[in-house]
Specification:
single chain, alpha+beta, 4-stranded antiparallel sheet, 4 strands, 22% strand, elongated
Length: 144
């Protein structure tokens, strides 16, 4: 009796063992030379998903920080527009915020560099510390 016949011959009972047995069969598919490839494929997919999650977290941090920085500039510096944006993609000091540098300019005026800290949105295990950016400093001599 082959594996396929064994799994088909077992009828599911109240505890669902037939279903579990079917899953086991799917995970232990064998090639002609007898190697288990199903388990390797599943482990490879899980490992790949974990690696990709880190990339998605970093892009989520940058995308969320850009929108929050724009909101901060609109609220705190009316009349100024963002002319440059730079963001750390990883929360390096584990405080729940990523560092953001924003170059702002009023029409016809000088450019000013403002450093903000915006909530890290890309790590689902860390809760956001706030709903918006907070002012860190203006590193250059800014005459507003």
């Amino acid at each position: 009796m082959t594996r396929r016949e064994k799994s088909k011959s077992q009828s599911p009972n109240a505890s669902g063992l037939g279903t579990i047995h079917s899953w086991t069969y799917c995970l232990t598919l064998q090639t002609k030379n007898g190697h288990n490839t199903g388990v390797k494929k599943v482990l490879f997919l899980v490992f790949g998903a974990v690696l990709c999650m880190g990339c998605q977290n970093q892009s989520a941090n940058a995308a969320a920080a850009k929108g929050l920085a724009q909101n901060w500039v609109n609220d705190m510096l009316p009349g100024y527009e963002i002319k440059g944006f730079s963001c750390a993609t990883v929360d390096t000091d584990s405080d729940g915020y990523v560092a953001v540098d924003v170059m702002v300019q009023k029409e016809g005026g000088d450019k000013h560099l403002v450093q903000l800290e915006c909530p890290a949105a890309g790590d689902p295990l860390n809760f956001q510390k706030g709903s918006g950016c907070k002012y860190k400093q203006s590193p250059m001599e800014n005459r507003w």
